[in-house]
Write a structure and sequence with these properties.
Blueprint lengths: L1 H32 L4 H7 L3 H23 L5 H29 L4 H5 L6 H21 L1
Length: 141
């Protein structure tokens, strides 16, 4: 019993570590797509637009990691690897979706996201991030 418990805790740390790395990559992605320092925009300047876009990306990564864990291969190593691969795939697709929205809409999406004034495009962008993540989750299951 204690061996199973210890093994489960070890798996939780391993999958949690992959999840944390993927969320850090999500932060880096959103930071790269928006001008200025994202951390400063959110924590110092209290920019709600930037916070919503980052939050949706992190939520999306969490959805993908959770789905990958819930449907993981019997073999631990394969499950961990598939979680990482699907997480990175989700981030790439979220980045592509961001760029497509930027191409088909007026102005620069990244610049709009970091404006102080609330903007409706932020909700569209955030919804797109979550929708892309849901699509990736469906591909996993």
């Amino acid at each position: 019993m204690f061996r199973d418990l210890a093994e489960g805790v070890g798996y939780a740390f391993a999958y949690g570590g992959v999840g944390i790395v993927l969320m850090v990559l999500g932060f880096v992605l959103v930071d790269a797509l928006t001008p200025g320092n994202l951390g400063q925009q959110i924590w110092i300047e209290r920019n709600r637009n930037a916070a919503l876009v980052l939050s949706s990306a992190l939520l999306g990564v969490g959805m993908i990691v959770t789905t990958a864990i819930a449907t993981a291969y019997e073999e631990f190593g394969k499950g961990l690897a598939s979680t990482a691969v699907f997480g990175v795939t989700g981030l790439i697709l979220m980045g592509i979706a961001f760029l497509v929205i930027d191409l088909v809409t007026p102005g620069r999406l990244g610049a709009t996201v970091v404006e102080r004034e609330p903007h409706p495009c932020v909700w569209v962008t955030a919804s797109t991030q979550v929708a892309i993540s849901a699509i990736v989750c469906a591909c996993i299951a």
